[in-house]
Amino acid sequence: MKKTKILFIFRTPMENIGQINDGKVDEPAEFLWGMKDLDRSIYDVRFINAPRFGKRTGIRRFTWIFEVVFAKYVRIGLPIDIYLKYKKDIVWADEIVCTYDQVSIGILFWRLFGFLRKKKIHAIVMSLSERIVYFKNIYPLKWFVSLLLRQADTILTLSDVASQAIEKEYGVERTKIYTWYFGIDIDFWKSKKENMIYDIMSIGNDMNRDFETLISAISSDDKVVLVTKKNIRQVHNDAVTVLSGIENTEVRELYNKSRIIVIPSIALKTESAGLSCFLQALSCERPVIISDSPPFREIFKDGMHCLFYIPGSVDDLRKKIELLKNDEKLAKKIATQGYELVRNRYTCKDMSNQLDYLFKHR
């Protein structure tokens, strides 16, 4: 039987994608987006990892100004040079999985101008449903992004509300949009008995993370660790430790050494900001407090799998933190039920199964 040729296009600082895919290193596989568990008896799988930065060579010497302007208003890059740099691999594939918004629109740019017509392009879109607020009234730009997205054979979003927004805001046919729930590596992210060192742990680097509200909500006696590359300006508390650039094994230890995990984000309508950290913490059987949003309401139930707080509300977040600190029974309940939900429905294998269905039926 002839195998279907699948190409994953990444744009990530992970340098050991191949070793993770082969199971040769102890690293989580969720950001392989289901690639690792695809059935190799029916799929011939390859990947490329396009660098985020580098010298402006080739076409980028002429297009970088356009890319900079695009990124300024859309808040997402447009790496149109990926196709030219990796043309041999891209031409080889029958189906292409574009991970992340910027990779998707960078490849769809070439489809717009007549290239890659014989390929099936599956575009993962996580942020464009939300970030349209930055350029909604710049009509030529909105038209251009809409035109790019409509070139995809399939658009993959992380929630039904995001799918609905892509259809409404960009005019993409609903039949092209597929809600594809994210899953994490439960073999890596798991509970381990550790001495509790921190009362609260929080983690994340994306532009939506709201550490300011968390810092304002903590008590003076809370011992807190923040894992982030973001510049946290208002930390004037010796009990707050800020770490960056640590390994995933260290992050896993911190989950297990913290009584409560808080994933704070600004108010969002369609973007699933912090979802990977949320699932990692639940897989480590930790109780999680997270900012309320429609995408998370699709998956998690308040008081059952987590506690939601009103985004930006210091008072509400403080109440939820104190509630979990003082109610060990509730903390144990949501940690256990959250853990069971993740392991039963939101794993790397589940992601791979969804991709398998997509390749066979779309």
Automatic annotation (TrEMBL):
Gene3D superfamilies: Glycogen Phosphorylase B. One of its GO terms (molecular function) is glycosyltransferase activity. It comes from the Bacteria. The keyword Transferase applies. Residues 231-340 form the Glycosyl transferase family domain. Keywords: Transferase. InterPro entries: Glyco_trans_1 (IPR001296). The keyword S-adenosyl-L-methionine does not apply. This is Glycosyl transferase family 1 domain-containing protein. It comes from Candidatus Magasanikbacteria bacterium CG_4_10_14_0_2_um_filter_41_31.
